[in-house]
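#lab-general

N.A. 3:47 PM
ok so I finally got the sequence cleaned up, no stray characters, all 162 residues accounted for. can someone with queue access submit it? mine expired

B.Y. 3:52 PM
send it over

N.A. 3:53 PM
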Amino acid sequence: MGSGKTHIISRIADLMPQEDVLRFTRITESSLYNWGEFDLFQKIIIIEDLDGLKEDALYALREFISNQVLRSSVTIKDKKENNKSSHKIVKGQFSSLSATTKGETYEDNMSRSFLLAVDESKEQTQRIIEYQNRRNAGEIDRNEQEKAIGFVQKEIFSALFI
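B.Y. 4:20 PM
back already:
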């Protein structure tokens, strides 16, 4: 039985302020370079499967996390349809959350991340099942649960953007 990494990432993302969350199944090699200058400022980028990113996309993500800016030389057409070089900048003070099935992560990615492992033990699975059974039986106070979610959202927002 797997840990359901996509489910876990989705549940964590649900606790974050939704207006700030951008969820991606994949990121292409050049997509981070193509956002507007401030489109990713104070956003939370969710990447459901880090394993699916190609090396160029991982490189862009690493550089973006470290420098909070991506600079690229691009070709655009002028008014006469002639090719012309231009400078494009994307700024992004952002947080990211991603999942991987790999037991080890590329060292350059690790130094830019907090790594969390999933408890896949039988005991943890049993605790989850018991909680779900109690919730489904109405033994969990929904208002208290919503209050706890609101508290977590507030704390996450504070931690991400201080």
